Amino acid sequence: MEEVYAFLKACDTYYLATMDGEQPRVRPFGTIDLFNGQLTIQTGRKKDVAQQMLAHPQVEICAFDGKRWLRLAAKAVEVPEVAAQEHMLDAYPNLRAMYAPGDGNTMIFALEDVTATFSSFTEPSRTVKF
């Protein structure tokens, strides 16, 4: 899990895919955190992406660091604790202009049942699960 976290953190931007009914939706994301032994992401409850993850929790993430890429499949599960929101916003203080712990809008999702595959054009792919 820590290797996946470090890779996503180093990339700054990754791409999160969700389902909107029958239509997949992909958008850039930038929040990634480790909280209480879980890999977590953050969004706003009012955003379509939050509603999509609540309705269809299976998500995929893809990131590229210029040499290797990561494809991650997981189940996104809401973490309702305000402490998780505080932890994320401490890691990304620039988000405090839009979000605040306990504001009813800030949402944290843990990525569970993760299958993450590291790939490149020069090395064999390697998969980790957690």
Describe the protein's architecture and organization:
This protein has 130 residues and is of the alpha+beta class. The chain has a single domain (2-129), classed as Pnp Oxidase, Chain A, CATH 2.30.110.10. The chain is 22% helix and 48% strand. It has 3 helices and 8 strands. The protein has helices at residues 2-11, 48-55, 82-91, and strands at residues 14-20, 23-29, 33-35, 38-44, 58-64, 68-79, 106-120, 126-129. Strands 1, 2, 3, 4, 5, 6, 7 and 8 form an 8-stranded antiparallel beta sheet that branches. The longest helix has 10 residues, at 2-11. The model has no long low-confidence stretch (mean pLDDT 98).
Structural key phrases:
8-stranded antiparallel β-sheet, 3 helices, 130 residues, alpha+beta, Pnp Oxidase, Chain A
Quick structural summary:
The chain has 130 residues and is an alpha+beta fold. Helix content is 22%, strand content 48%. Strands 1, 2, 3, 4, 5, 6, 7 and 8 form an eight-stranded antiparallel beta sheet that branches.
Task: Indicate the topology.
Elements: H1 2-11, E1 14-20, E2 23-29, E3 33-35, E4 38-44, H2 48-55, E5 58-64, E6 68-79, H3 82-91, E7 106-120, E8 126-129
Antiparallel strand pairs: 1-2, 1-5, 3-4, 4-7, 5-6, 6-7, 7-8
